[in-house]
Each structure stands twice: as structure tokens, then as C-alpha cells.
Design goal:
Layout: H1 24-76, H2 78-81
Length: about 90
């Protein structure tokens, strides 16, 4: 009974015919979700490797370009090469 004196009815009571085990269908659903997750994680790993490889190649290209640019700038700048123009 609750505070007002009315009887409380339990609506979620287990009947004698139902079992507590979720059954074969629930196991198949959980197993199927596990298989799907395995393929999802494999695919995600493959895509992340591609992104990482592309980022490393892009970074290396930028470093090579910057090094090439610095070398070209040094060759044209007499102050950096140590060959200052002579006063005639």
C-alpha cells in the first residue's frame, strides 16, 4: 500500500511461462552487431592509415619545397654566400 492507502499493483511481475534468459534471437543480434563492428573498425583503420600517409607525404613535399626555396634564395643573395659586391 502506498501513502494514500491504495494497493500498489506490480505491472512488471514475471509470469511463470516467461524465462529470464534473453534467448537465441538476442544472442544472434548481439553477435551480428559484434561482426559489424569488427568490419567497421577495420575500415576505419584503413582510412586513417591513408589519411596519415597522405599527411606525411604532404608534409615531406612542403619541407622539400621550403628547402629548395631556401637554397634558391641563398644562391641569389650575395650577402648569404659571402660574396659581397666590390666597389670599383
Amino acid at each position: 500500500m502506498d501513502e494514500r492507502g491504495e494497493p500498489v499493483v506490480t505491472l512488471a511481475a514475471a509470469s511463470a511461462s516467461s524465462s529470464a534468459a534473453p534467448g537465441t534471437l538476442a544472442f544472434i543480434i548481439v553477435l551480428g552487431m559484434a561482426v559489424i563492428l569488427v568490419f567497421l573498425f577495420r575500415s576505419m583503420s584503413k582510412h586513417l592509415r591513408k589519411v596519415d600517409q597522405a599527411a606525411r607525404q604532404d608534409q615531406a613535399a612542403h619541407q622539400d619545397q621550403a628547402a629548395h626555396q631556401d637554397t634558391a634564395d641563398d644562391a641569389g643573395d650575395p650577402a648569404r654566400t659571402g660574396q659581397l659586391p666590390r666597389d670599383s
